[in-house]
Amino acid sequence: MSHKSNSLKQLALQKFKKNFWGVFSFYFIVLVGFISVFAYAFAPDNSQYANQMHLTIHSKKPGFKVTMLTIPSQLESNQSGIDKFFFGKQNTDTEIPISKYNVSRDTLNYLEYASDGLEGVEKSIPLNVFTNKKVDEYIKEKTFLFGTDKYGRDLLSRILVGARISFFIGFVAVFISLIIGIFMGSVAGYFGGKIDAFIMWIINVTWSIPTLLMVIAITLALGKGFWQVFIAVGLTMWVEVARVVRGQIISAKEMQYVTAARALGYNDYRIITKHILPNIMAPVIVISAANFAAAILIESGLSFLGIGAQPPMASWGAMIKDHYNYIILGKPYLALIPGICIMSLVMAFMLVGNALRDALDVKA
């Protein structure tokens, strides 16, 4: 039995490997996951939430370059290295875009950057501010590969940090939906009768409420925030899992191996968890892949409506909300770049789901 199971797994894996778009999408998802975990290591702006604002260089095109003066702060940060690596640096330094500068004796004179042909303000600071280092080490040319948003923040950094929310909401939401859906579907399908009727009533009532409306209601009840959105999305996605598990268990519980398990005196919990569920997980895996994509879209919609991830937290949906009016103002890339990111990740999960369906030979 074990040899047969391994053979079936190997056949499914070989079939999946032959699907080019499925394999490509899988590696793309792995890449996005890797970037989302180590976002601050890749982001040019490694401050918390990539929230370093420079209003004088707002809404600049991709590839924009400017000379940046960093004025060190006298405040000391007690932040640990691990905290900086995974959650960003608590940046107390001040960054100022400048056009030109010169050093005279014990003073640094600089001209602040001004766009649209305007003349910036000329200012000066004492050199003793730059302790133990040369002034040139605090003045560097900075390139914004994706340009800047309307607050002058690095758009590439915001995209990289925002991937964390869009990616991990899929994991949390699918995890919650699997726990609730598999439990409810297993109980309804295995025991039947009034228990099945009651659970199906709950499923039908939940199913009849529009998903986005229910998420909004749950979010408002739990409050606005990061984890509240994760929980709200997960609580709305268990219905599909429950319906599939219920249907599979209804057909599987009449199989001979279940009858043999009952004859051996195994209890219901062991029969469901050890014998039935391992044999019906193929369609559940396919639905989970689709739910990943749905969770990303729902979170993006919530952030667009302003009840998802709250500022200054980076979120792809919130970026579209902040910049969708720039589409008609000649700077559509501010909204298109996060939109393309959402589309690419959702499409990757859908293609992986289709590839898994073909490999596992799940029939609709």
From TrEMBL:
Which SUPFAM superfamilies does UniProt cross-reference here?
Answer: MetI-like
Please give the chief subcellular localization of this protein: membrane
Q: How does it sit in the membrane?
A: Multi-pass membrane protein
**Domain called ABC transmembrane type-1: residue spans:** 163-353
PROSITE patterns documented for this protein? ABC_TM1
> Which UniProt keywords are given for this protein, alphabetically ordered?
Cell membrane, Membrane, Transmembrane, Transmembrane helix, Transport
Q: A Pfam family this protein belongs to?
A: BPD_transp_1
Keyword Secreted present in the record's keywords: the answer is: no
Q: From the Swiss-Prot or TrEMBL record, state where the protein is found.
A: Cell membrane
- Which sequence ranges are marked TM in the entry? 20-43, 165-191, 198-220, 226-245, 276-298, 333-356
- Identify its protein family: Belongs to the binding-protein-dependent transport system permease family.
- What this protein is called in its record is ABC transporter permease
Q: Say which species the protein is native to.
A: Mariniflexile aquimaris
